[in-house]
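Students often ask why we bother predicting the structure of a whole assembly rather than each chain alone. The short answer is interfaces. A chain on its own may look different once its partners are present, and contacts between molecules only exist in the joint model. In this exercise we take two input lines together and write out one structure for the complete complex. Read the inputs first and try to guess which parts will touch.
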Amino acid sequence: MSEADAVLLENVSRSFGTQRVVDRLSFRVPTGSLFGLIGPNGSGKTTTMRMILRIYQPQEGRVVVLGQSQGRTADTRVGYLPEERGLYPRMTVRRILRYFANLKQIPKPDEAIDRWLTALSMNSWANKRVEQLSKGMAQKVQFITSVIGSPKLAILDEPFSGLDPVNLDLLKNSIRQLRDEGTTVILSTHDMDVAQSMCDRVLMIYRGQNVLDGTLNEIRTQKGQPRLRVRMADGSIPQQYLPGVESCIANGDFYDLVLQNQDARPEVMRALADAGDIEHFETVRPSLHDIFVAIAGPEASSNPSVPSNSNTAI
Amino acid sequence: MIGTKAFLLTLVLMPVMMMGGLLAMPLISSIEGPQERRIVVADGSGNLLDALQQAAAARAAIVSQSSDPKDEKRDSGRDNPLGGANDLYKIEAAPSGSLTSEQQIAYGDEIRAGTLYALVEIPVEINDVSSPAAAKRVRFVSSSGTLSDVRGWVAGVLSRSLKNRRLLEAGIDPSLVAAADTGVDVAAIRPYERVKPGDDQAEGKGEEESMASVFAPFLMMMLMFLVIFLAAQPMLESAMEEKTHRISEVLLGSVTSTQLMAGKLLGNVAGSMVIFVVYGVGGVFLLNRFEMLHLLPLHLVGWFLVFQVGAVLLYSSIFMSVGAAVSQLKEAQSLLLPVWLILATPMMIWFVALRDPNGMIATTMSFFPPSAPLMMILRLGTGAAVPAWQPPLAAILLFLSAAFVVVVAGRIYRVSLLRADGAKSLLQLLRRAT
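Now the answer. The structure tokens for the assembled complex follow.
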């Protein structure tokens, strides 16, 4: 592992009973990056994050976090926001933040608390009990507990769930700011738009294995099949006459033609021109969402928590 | 734990609940001060009213001489005219020795209204030795006659008065009978010991220490039970709260499960010290209030703290692991039932152990780690000659087993914290430790 990596996993496996949840998983998280962790439910993301946190120990392989590969000691340099939120309901916001600041051994906790409360527009809520907060407010408090020590590594599992658009933007900006200040952020999300718009690199875990890993461009180049987005003047699409087209997906007024390969594009363009008047024509790259669905397939689409494809395949 | 309202409330209410009014009543009585009890006497015998009035006057004189509830005269036996209470009795004569129904109802109304404490009806048959017992029965009419001190006082005064009169009628001087009737006082004395090393003066400690040897160990055992209960129970609740509110995983992001458990245990030991100090100060205050401070078994404090720390570690770790392993309170109750039974066993057989502190049962239980804290303190509190090697050995066994239980409970705690399913049986619970 080089110092450029905040996290390194090498052939890591972990089973529960007879079920192998993580299977020879390897990846690295560059220091200072905003790293997206995606995958359908039950793919092993949470177990992977818990192994990075040393809550679980790998049964095989090696996990190196901030240069350390041994021990069970929770690292005060690591912040964690689990998917299932939990705060002491009868404690006030300030008291609970102070409690977590003490756990993180932060020298001047109140300074850090005030800074984060201000950043997330929560100053007036400092002395309210957690049970008095809305879900979104509690979510922001929970977020602060995970990043209050300005950790070297922040692991955030679905940090945006339950937030309104205003707070969503607020939190997105805070996470970007964290990254800009040098914190490595691992962001686990089911929202492909978030992963696409925020993350420097993305890793997709499927059935406990690394199936996608790289920058968005790399992933799109490696895994995304080329597409042409067209609209014919008469609204039709003579798919049966188009050579080199694997499938055609209706997308509003347009049709996305998924090509068998990049070389088929000139031939398809000629065929379309022969077929009639072309009103709109553009080359589009597949979204992360499309790639996710293509890989996870029926497993993801049968899972209500994974966004389903709104397009209709013809 | 210590900052919560529930803890503070339990801390105050628990001794009251466990000791009943035993501690509270003398305190309340001393705060209220003496009260005047108005008593109407319908003397059918025609010659006992005077005796009651004279006894009431004598009682009032003693009360006025000494308002100190520890006055020796109050505890000097059945001749004590105060009868063990601090109130003044105002004896009034009824219009006649035999009341009509209307008069009885009128007095009944006064009693219910609280203006009259009691009506005493003395039948004429009381003078006749040959009358049946039922006919001679004195009626004490009151709202709280069954538990009233006044009823006992009335019975005592009437009995003595009648006895003296009958002796006089038989030509016998009552003072001679009283002298002849003097009982033999057998005092319980502890084994003699040298007053000073090398000195040939022996000293045996007497009755007060004998009473202390009954109550001091019992109270110390109760205190130990209270401390364990107050320290261990919140561990169950805290672990369950952190699991059900999904706080555990947040905490595990900051500390390891071992650190979390160790922190809770150490905090709990410190909390139990606070409980000990609070009850200790309260106990000293009460003993001082009743001038019984010399009964405080100070020599036990050291051993008490040693066994308290061991017991708190042992029971807190069990309760914490069960709290983490269950998903519902009823599962916890079922899993902890045997633990409660073991803990409570010394309280069920404390009298047996008190009568024979070095007997087989008491000795065995004082070495069995779960019951050792209560039983060893009970034995030591009696002042019996517990062999010097036994307390340290029992403490070592307790700490060794506490260490073992902490390790096993720590595994259960770590494995269970993030599991959604609850352990339904002891077997399922123990499997999580493997």
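Check your guess against this: The first helix of chain A runs from residue 45 to 52.
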